[in-house]
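Propose amino acids for all 376 sites.
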């Protein structure tokens, strides 16, 4: 963390004093007053406004900088429509479970290969404690989970939401375990199988709700956000059912209270935009959702918060995306680029402001008799 590169990243990401934050263009204030963070995103895609420091401007809006004199209205039409849909229907049942795969993860392996680190192809938060770059941060995150799960050769591990095979590949190569990975994206599965060729890894295109089996360990890295509010109980029941007695479950999860009367209005408006444009039918679980499994035999052994590391990760993704844009422009087009900028910069601003959290949680089935030793 003391290298010149890391100091450069730290200086850019550290929250600046209020009087050093970037100015907010008048047109942004006008749009935000009228339609909040949702309409602001739609207008940015259309090219209706620009700024030099998008993350800084969004940070000021998310934290409701009083000098801007913006009063965010909770129940604007877009918010209310999505809130009703989320409450009334279960969008992740049957074929709906595959929608986020078709609309997001199947966009193209060229896009994600350009944006993510080359070593692991990981699309989740890295662990920057001792890392000097994105590759090291992602390897450190995966290894941290392997150590928290106390992996040993010969164990069977289930990876729910295996992505491009990052955890499966690393765990099989370095810890001698057998891994079954589940994904709802055919593009992910194709590349994951290629990356894991020759290892004791099986990649399945299958909804977790229809899967069964018995495993010594279960891991799921930022997949629970895709199951939907109404299916969180189903998700944890599946984990409990597949985990052997005394086994460990490692969960990496984005968490915050959203889409309720108590949640922050600009955050809710941005989440609704994300659900429309980036992650259809997604839902961020709160801490109550994550503690409820204790009632069904899953004991929380360890909870580790390293939320600010996501700001570093998102900035690294943005820089790689922008650097690779000349090779992506013809296929994706300028509106897509602006949509991706609003997505990556908005999420970075939220983690900089500590309005959204990132946890690694270790659960055991029935408790560890002799106690659990935490890893950092």
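Proposal:
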């Amino acid at each position: 963390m003391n290298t010149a590169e890391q100091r450069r990243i730290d200086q850019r990401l550290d929250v600046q004093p209020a009087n050093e934050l970037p100015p907010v263009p008048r047109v942004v204030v006008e749009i935000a007053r009228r339609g909040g963070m949702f309409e602001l995103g739609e207008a940015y895609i259309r090219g209706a406004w620009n700024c030099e420091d998008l993350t800084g401007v969004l940070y000021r809006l998310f934290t409701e900088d009083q000098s801007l004199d913006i009063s965010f209205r909770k129940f604007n039409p877009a918010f209310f429509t999505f809130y009703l849909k989320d409450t009334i229907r279960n969008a992740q049942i049957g074929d709906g479970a595959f929608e986020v795969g078709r609309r997001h993860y199947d966009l193209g392996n060229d896009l994600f290969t350009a944006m993510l680190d080359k070593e692991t192809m990981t699309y989740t938060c890295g662990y920057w404690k001792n890392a000097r770059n994105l590759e090291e941060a992602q390897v450190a995150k995966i290894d941290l989970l392997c150590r928290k799960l106390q992996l040993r050769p010969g164990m069977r591990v289930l990876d729910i939401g295996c992505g491009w095979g990052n955890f499966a590949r690393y765990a099989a190569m370095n810890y001698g375990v057998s891994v079954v990975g589940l994904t709802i994206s055919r593009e992910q599965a194709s590349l994951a199988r290629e990356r894991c060729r020759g290892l004791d890894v099986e990649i399945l295109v299958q909804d977790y709700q229809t899967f069964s089996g018995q495993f010594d360990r279960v891991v799921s890295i930022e997949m629970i956000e895709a199951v939907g509010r109404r299916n969180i109980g189903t998700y944890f029941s599946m984990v409990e059912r597949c985990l052997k007695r005394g086994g460990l479950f490692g969960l990496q999860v984005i968490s915050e209270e959203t889409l309720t009367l108590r949640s922050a209005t600009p955050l809710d408006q941005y989440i609704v935009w994300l659900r429309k444009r980036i992650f259809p039918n997604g839902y961020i679980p709160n801490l109550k959702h994550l503690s409820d499994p204790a009632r069904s035999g899953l004991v929380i052994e360890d909870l580790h918060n390293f939320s600010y590391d996501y700001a570093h990760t998102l900035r690294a993704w943005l820089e790689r995306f922008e650097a690779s844009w000349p090779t992506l422009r013809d296929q994706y087009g300028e509106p897509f680029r602006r949509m991706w900028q609003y997505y990556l910069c908005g999420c970075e601003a939220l983690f900089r402001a500590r309005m959204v959290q990132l946890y690694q949680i270790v659960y055991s089935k029935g408790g560890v008799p002799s106690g659990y030793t935490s890893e950092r």
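The radius of gyration is 20 Å. The chain is about 45% helix and 15% strand.
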